[in-house]
Backbone:
């Protein structure tokens, strides 16, 4: 997609909004539940049930679920898990599920998201906001998910046209640090805003260089400072409009 200004040879000076995918563009728990269930599939019934019970407790209570767990190793996983995907992966590893099985579970969850059985939708308020911001702001999707299967998933969610660039396999946080540095090579840091629900992957890389960031802190972790923090993205969107207005001349 051609960017405004490129056809005239002028650089694109619009402010940059870089957006996470899982937990940000959509927040339904169906995909991560499927991931957890698939990862647990090879475990003995007793271990499988325990793993999934702990995972459901995390979805309901966040890291506070650890306070109800006698097993210190499991409690440590729950306390340290930044999001539901991390909780599922950590609990699976603790139960003896290997990296290859976790990778298989993730790819299976992405395939599941393409089926009618998976109820998943983009957050309506986010879609509406991005439609209003299009043209004024360069909106970029950055996700650690591999490119394979991502395009049809964005199409199913109806959000393909919202993003002028999609950075897949982003290798966050380090990959995002490099991407931000390159994007801000000749412009003020405040012209970039990072939006996501994983503090260390999406928020800290932006804050570290003086850029702006909106932290969707669903589980009340308060992992660090952000320009804006809220439990749901709806409460961050007004601040994004204010940021966009301040950086549009």
Residues:
């Amino acid at each position: 997609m051609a960017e405004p200004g490129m056809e005239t040879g002028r650089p694109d000076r619009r402010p940059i909004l870089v957006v996470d995918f899982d937990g940000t563009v959509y927040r339904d728990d169906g995909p991560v539940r499927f991931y957890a269930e698939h990862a647990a599939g090879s475990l003995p019934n007793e271990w499988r049930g325990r793993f999934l019970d702990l995972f459901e407790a995390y979805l309901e209570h966040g890291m506070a679920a650890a306070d109800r767990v006698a097993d210190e190793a499991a409690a440590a996983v729950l306390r340290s898990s930044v999001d539901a995907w991390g909780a599922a992966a950590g609990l699976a590893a603790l139960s003896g599920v290997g990296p290859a099985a976790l990778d298989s579970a993730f790819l299976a969850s992405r395939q599941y998201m393409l089926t009618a059985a998976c109820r998943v939708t983009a957050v309506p308020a986010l879609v509406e906001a991005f439609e209003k911001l299009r043209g004024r702001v360069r909106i970029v999707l950055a996700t650690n998910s591999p490119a394979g299967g991502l395009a049809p998933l964005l199409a199913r969610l109806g959000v393909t046209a919202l993003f002028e660039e999609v950075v897949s396999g982003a290798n966050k946080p380090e990959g995002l640090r490099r991407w931000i540095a390159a994007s801000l090579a000749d412009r003020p840091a405040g012209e970039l805003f990072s939006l996501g629900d994983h503090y260390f992957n999406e928020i800290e890389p932006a804050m570290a260089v003086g850029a702006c960031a909106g932290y969707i802190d669903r589980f009340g972790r308060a992992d660090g400072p952000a320009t804006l923090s809220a439990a749901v993205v709806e409460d961050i969107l007004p601040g994004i409009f204010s940021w966009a207005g301040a950086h549009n001349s």
Observations:
- Residues 1-8 have pLDDT under 50 and may be disordered.
- The longest helix spans residues 45-61.
